[in-house]
Specification:
By secondary structure, the protein is mainly beta. It has four domains: about 90 residues, Immunoglobulins (Immunoglobulin-like); about 80 residues, Immunoglobulins (Immunoglobulin-like); about 90 residues, Immunoglobulin-like; about 110 residues. The chain has three helices and 35 strands. A six-stranded mixed sheet has the order 24-25-21-19-27-28, with no helix packed on it. A hairpin with a 2-residue loop joins strand 22 and strand 23. The longest helix is centred in the first third of the chain and has 20 residues. The N terminus is likely disordered.
């Protein structure tokens, strides 16, 4: 019996030893000189260098979070929304409780020890509007605007909007529009706005406010579209903002300073007669500053333009949907005259550049005759692309016999038609 008691006491002592070694308190012996760590929550990894979404909430719920850090007794936490430090909204700096309007935000937390060592975590927070809220979306490049010029925001329930703030500054001349491209509000950007990114806020007649995400204000010439492709020796149109300030455009070392048309939003010039290929593209403003180009979603002072031997038949932004009734100009795209095709030879390559309408429930394009005889497609797509059709003599004959050439389908814009 004595032996049995001895074994039991030994086992009990061993159990206490293991319990002491497996304390649930992380880094219980941490000191002020230890490296800080954020143990919880775990942020998702970046995807191709871009921040991942960490939280997705509705605008009637607060963004709440509690951090577990070490060394806990020697670490403070700072919270940043879009790079601006904000109070935690709680009695503890390691907990966050904050209300945010609808929009997309960058959340960053920085844990710093008393010895000056720090670590951080960062992610995207999506705050969704409620169903009946006035709310905006991004259709194309309309969120880049110029001081004193007209801007546009697309969305739903926008008829309720009576006011718009860009940052803390009211926009003026607000109007609500509904047309084939959707519903939107137009406004005049305050002339005093400095260059930068600003949060937009919608206001209704009852004094309620709603987040409308960000608007970028720039006073510099910025080419938003048209810079990726040009036809050697042909007319070339660039679109953007502040383009009336452009003094010259340089492509492949050749500088053009005379333009056939120049406004705040368009610039038309003749492309130098360069061999087919890719060339660097730069520009200078009237004050000597470089012209900026939208490249991969960011402003850059140099772009790459592809010079081709193609002839531009039409360029613009024409919406197409077979949901419209007969006779509606956007039922089809039919803006290339029949006599243009009469001068083409078999083997010519017809290229139709298109872009999707983000609000459409699906996207489909087909190239056809005026009798809706398909020459190519229908093709389903979700991203901008080019429909290519090598014309045969039979196709050219059908175009002449069947009321010309049209583009049909749903949910897209025709942006450019060329032939080579």
């Amino acid at each position: 019996m004595k032996k049995i008691y001895s074994i039991l006491f030994a086992a009990l002592a061993l159990a206490f030893t293991f319990a002491a070694c497996s304390s649930e308190e992380p880094f219980s012996t941490a000191t002020a000189d230890d490296e800080p760590r954020i143990l919880d929550p775990t942020f998702p990894d970046r995807a191709n260098g871009a921040l991942a979404t960490f939280a997705n909430i509705n605008r009637d719920a607060n963004l709440t979070m509690a951090l577990t850090v070490t060394p806990a007794d020697y670490t403070t936490v700072a919270w940043f929304i879009d790079g601006v430090e904000v109070p935690s909204g709680t009695a503890s700096d390691k907990e966050l409780d904050i209300a945010l309007p609808a929009g997309t935000y960058t959340l960053k937390m920085v844990a710093t020890t008393v010895s000056g060592k720090s670590t951080s975590r960062e992610g995207i927070v999506l705050v969704n509007p409620l169903a009946d809220d006035p709310q905006t979306t991004t259709v194309a490049l309309e969120r880049t605007v110029a001081p004193g010029q007209r801007g546009r925001l697309y969305g739903t329930n926008l008829a309720q909007v009576t006011g718009l703030l860009i940052g803390d500054t009211p926009a003026t001349d607000l109007t609500y529009v509904e047309d084939e491209s959707g519903s939107y509000i137009e406004y005049t950007v305050p002339e005093t706005m400095a260059d930068g990114d600003y949060r937009a806020t919608l206001q209704d007649a009852g004094g309620n406010t709603y987040g409308a995400d960000k608007v970028t204000v720039t006073s510099m010439p910025l080419v938003l579209a048209g810079a990726s492709r040009a036809t050697t020796g042909g007319a070339w149109t660039l679109t953007g903002i502040n383009l009336d300030q452009v003094a010259s455009i340089t492509i492949g070392g050749q500088t053009v300073s005379e333009f056939s048309q120049q406004t705040a939003t368009t610039l038309t010039l003749t492309c130098p007669e360069l061999p087919v290929g890719d060339y660097p593209l730069t520009g200078s403003a009237t004050g000597g500053a470089p012209v900026q180009f939208l490249v991969n979603g960011a402003a850059a002072t140099e772009a790459t333009v592809t010079v081709t031997a193609e002839q531009t038949l039409w360029e613009g932004h024409h919406y197409v949907s077979w949901d419209f009734p007969d006779g509606d100009p956007n039922k089809t795209f039919n803006l290339i005259p029949m006599d243009v095709f009469a001068g083409m030879a078999p083997g010519a390559l017809l290229r139709v550049s298109y872009s999707p309408d983000p609000a459409a429930e699906y996207h489909q394009i087909a190239l056809a005759t005026g009798y809706w005889t398909y020459l190519l497609g229908p093709i389903d797509f979700s991203e901008a692309g080019v429909a290519e059709l090598t014309l045969t003599q039979d196709m050219l004959d059908k175009i002449q016999a069947e009321a010309g050439f049209i583009c049909v389908g749903h949910g897209y814009y025709v942006d450019l038609v060329t032939v080579k």
